Amino acid sequence: MYPKIFAAFIFSLATVDICQGSVLFRATSNDTVNSSGKIVGGTDAKPHEYPYQISLQDQGWHICGGTILSDVKIATAAHCCEDYLTTWSDLRVVAGAHVAANASLFYYQIHTHGYYKTNDACILTVTEPLELNFAVKAMPLCEVEPAPGTVCTATGWGRTNPDNDRWKGPLQKLDMTIVSRQVCERSYGPLDEDVICAGGVFGQDVCFGDSGGPLVCETGSSKCLAGVTSYGSSLGCALGIPAGFTNVAWFYKFFTNDG
Description:
Strand content: 25-35%
Helix content: under 10%
């Protein structure tokens, strides 16, 4: 099964307002390998174990993750979108990949259709429907915020440690436990309800390049997208400080009604 690469439109996006955190964006294009590493302290996912994960790429470089919501719509972080409004022609969406750097890419255009001002959420709309199959699947949205103590799974091609360069390797996965806002506020200051936090285990974390990717939680017998990877501590990754995720339940209408 070969990865699929699709043209896309940024349908709606939001800018970032994150208190004392640091967005988990891409490494620079001067790094040496054509993909930006992996989750810190995670393990290799099996091929197509997380078929809802996509790679958002700039001129062949993985910059952010995203989550397939339907055959035409993808959720990611606003800061993954907003820095590319002037270079939209270089962005690509890769679906169905296990090793993002192995994908053969082609050129397409992206347009914007309005945005929020305060929150880290973005919708990509592909110009032709994705072919949904075992390697490319949609993930339902969580309508209710996960409770503290819920164990969820983050995935991505972000850095394997805060100091390494880009790497070409398989998708990484990491179980992360939801923590209360009160716990998270010890690191970031006051937080609004548009953010949820998870993790806080030393040596395990989402990191640069994981932005926009999914945090998926189990609700009963099913799974749903609970968070969009947004930011971590400005001190660095995997230091025992929880990571911040866009609260999908808070933005449920935004994601389902296109803003």
